[in-house]
Amino acid sequence: MRNTLFILFILYVTTSFSQIEIKGTVYDKNGVLEGAAVYFNNTMLGTSTNNDGKFSITTKQGNYDLVVSFLGYKKIVYN
């Protein structure tokens, strides 16, 4: 039992360290955009910007296309 707990702890630590946090602010020439959609293309991971135009998404490390969209604006894809 003691060996099993040690292995589970190592697996937990490894998975928790393999995640990254993407942060940013969405704005245009007039200022920040509240409520803009920010998500990774072809995934279920996404969020919207807060009152200050800021967002934060936590995900596993990898290669993703980050999409930013807002009603009335052209969608932007960063890869």
Describe it for me?
With 79 residues, the protein is α+β, with helices and mostly antiparallel strands. The chain has one domain: Immunoglobulin-like. It contains one helix and eight strands, in the order αββββββββ. The protein has one helix at 2-17; strands at residues 19-25, 27-28, 31-32, 37-40, 46-48, 54-60, 66-69, 76-78. The strands form three sheets. It has a four-stranded antiparallel β-sheet, with no helix packed on it. It has a two-stranded antiparallel sheet with strand order 1-6. A two-stranded antiparallel sheet has the order 2-3. 6% of the residues are buried. Mean pLDDT is 82; it is low at 1-5.
Short description:
About 20% of the residues lie in helices and about 40% in strands. The protein has about 80 residues and is α+β, with helices and mostly antiparallel strands.
